[in-house]
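Dear support,

We are seeing what looks like truncated structure output for some complexes. This example has two components. We would appreciate it if you could run it in full and send us the complete token output so we can diff it against ours.
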Amino acid sequence: MTRTAGLSCLFLPALVLAAAAAQTNRPAAGVVQVIVTYQDYDPLLPWRKLPPATRQGYAAVIGSSRALTTENLVRRATLVEILCAESGDKMPASIETRDHQANLALLKIAGDAAPNAATSRTGRMTPLAIAERVARSSAVTIVQFDETGQIQQGSGDVIQTCVGALDGAMNYSLMFKVLTELNVNGEGAAVLQNDKLAGLVMSYDRGTRTAGILPSVVLDRFLKDVAEPPYEGFASAGFTWTGLTDPAKRAYLDVRDPDKGILVLSSLPGGDETGKLSPNDVIFKWDGFAIDNLGFYEDPEFGRLSMPHLIKGRRKPGDVVPVTIVRDRRTMDVQAPLSRFSDETSLVPENNVGEPEEYLVAGGCVIRELTGLYLRARGPNWRQATDPRLMHLYLTRRFMPEQPGDRVVILSVVLPDSINIGYQHFRDAIVATVNGQPVRSLRDVFRVVDADGRLERLGLRSCGVELVLDPAEMASADTRLARLYRVPQLRRQRAK
Amino acid sequence: MNKALTAPAAVGLLLAGCLGSSPGPLTPPGVHAIRRSVVKIYVTIQRDDYLTPWQGGRAASASGSGFIIQGRRILTNAHIVSDVRFLEIQKDSDPRRFKARVRYIGHDCDLALLEVEDPAFFQDTLAVEFAETIPDLNDEVTVLGYPTGGDRLSITRGVLSRIDYNVYTHSGVDQHLVFQVDAAINPGNSGGPVIFEGRVIGLAFQGIAYAQNIGYAIPIPVIRHFLKDIADDKYHGYPELGVAFLETRNEALRRHLKLPPGESGVAIINVDPFGSAKGHLRNGDILLSIDGYAIAHDGTIELAGNRVIFHELIERKQWGETVRFEILRDGVRADIHMPLANPQDPFVYRNLYNEPPRYYITGGLVFTPLSRKYLEAMDLSRRGGDVNTLQLLYYSQYAKIDNLYANIDEFVVFARQLPHPVNTYATDFVNGIVSRVNGVAIRNLADVKKAVAGPQNGFHVIRFAGNDDSLILDAQAARLADPQIFATYGVDSPENLGGK
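Here is the complete output from our reference environment:
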């Protein structure tokens, strides 16, 4: 942002008024703008990085040189800078803790050497206290900056408490919906109530003028977790379920209470097998709370809420909760273990956070694992643009590896070269064997290639002949390919 | 040769819906006599409605072209006379229309042969003659027919632009030789002859929307194949080899496959369980030659001075004939004599015509076999993103490749919900592929009806592929609701199970 002297003069009266307002409005000094330079990896050619770009949002100052914002805002950040209201000074910040499942990140703002808080750059910031309780239908204030860095405040009303999706299929959280007249211009904007931090803006819908707010109870939980390392995160129960509203289905399952119970559809792999729920279990009571046939319960603090809050909001990983179920027409009590969901356990990980993905380029064959990030790289119509077989695996089996650690290994593309003549049309083909040995993950591929010294043969699913690469030509071909296609590293393998 | 389910979307058939004013025709030299054999075909067709399979679709009128061949027969396109309810033929400059009937129809090659009972029709007509050879590229050709834009015969000229293989959109999956010409071919030209030096070398049949000067004709070898096929009074269709192959242009691959230096061929990577090659060829076999013609690394053979894909020799054979392959199997040469067949393949998803859609309805749930027509009726372009629809695409394209068809005669889809209180909660299951009903594994549509006869503890329990949830219906309530549902939605028959 560039401000000219002329503009400053023109808006001088407004600046004075705004500054005066800031002096009398200390909570607004607890809001800072976050300027993030980020750089994503190319989801299709994993050794490439996309051009760096910049996005802006907000953070709430919550302690000494600490600020809380959304993880989404600082994802793949190469530089994070903090800008105080009514100031052109940018302060670098680092990411101290991040949790994409909660969409929260704690930033540490680099201080300056000035001992006097009044002259220190970080001293201009006023930490916000976390609001203990925010009631439904109560009024809140959303604080953000305008394009010149001046504070904007707008009032809003909490119109709904709900459990809503953050980004990613498994990431749900307690959310407030706030109806506001303010045109919210960035995520992470602070929501205040009685000068305390009542929540952070996660999303905003211009059409309905409603903002999705991650409320203070979730923020508080995150901060306390951070304060007591190791960070544990939010819990998951490891099963999928559906409501049980169909009277015929209830009668078939012999569920007599007309208003209670949800149906377990599948149990996800991983976690503690003891006490795991099974398909066709009907959950009546979870952790002491009666569950209705849509999966809601009566929360003593927030009223009617969907069940995931009982798991993510009221418990933590490692807890074991009492559950009353009907299994095979018998009512019984079981102890359900909770754990933190790990994307790594999936057959097709989402990689929503854009972690650099592992790959191997050998003889021009680009071998990698299927991820949600890779699939979505095909654009808005990615579901239709993807090979139906890969889409089927993603939609119906992504959480269900046959064996722990299983992944879908694919030959994503072939970089044309004389060594791979005749194979260059293969794309998004599932790799079944490498050098004649079955592979169930890229780790297997690395193991085989390292043991054999090179990739020589590639077996693809439903292709009855292996693709064979000339072993005598591989080294020179790889050198040539790396130079021609500017592949700086022919493999990326994370330490396990 | 069959191709995958997806056909070029922009390729359209050239059936005229309506006709306008009539400018005077042009008459190039050499085709004047042939005018007398080119006829206009008027049809009323009624396509089946796969969304409401218990009733016929809307009837529509259209017109196309055809021409008289030896034996007082009229050759035209199958797509003009498929699902026809009323058929008339008119000669150029003759006000009379003659009633006709379809004698033979080949949907895989988009050809049909018509008969006219009234001998008066053939007065002053001339049977066209077929060319013995294929013209060269850039040879001038003339197209005759009755395209949109007028009532009378139209004659256009252009050149033979390309000889290629392409999908015949009428069936949606079959791929044969095509002539591409740049003569104007428009809706209504379908079925008209393409003439070179006074003889028929092709029959106009399809074009590409949004492209200029590209029209396609069914070439004379395909026409001859059709006419030879029906010589025994029955159309059998093209035999299907049923293999996928990998080129052996890669030297390392050739060494690995023990292909001797100087030899060439292609490696079999997939054998279709419904093709002629099943039981004769297997993965890893190298096809060295076909009927004595050496197969190159890219799968082509040299035929009459041209390089064509080796399938061309299969294309020239009839059902029941034999093809001879010389192969290399595990480094050993062998001769394979393979009878060519064209067995019923329910998983090829060819467009079906003249066959009312099969369905079964209970409790307001409409079940139907997965078919190309059903997928088209769903309008995938508008609803392509939901899980069930994407699964239908996967099953339709990978049924044989991923062995999804094991113990399955046909995939049965819960196609539609006729809303009623008895099935209120069925909505999320629409377009799901039925795997079990009341504990019975479903092989075909008839199995659904049989399984419905045995509810479990008074309930119908319906399971779907790739879905952990089940659809439950109160069996007695469903049975009692059926008459009301049928009356409400105008279902006059709750089933058409067809032959299975």
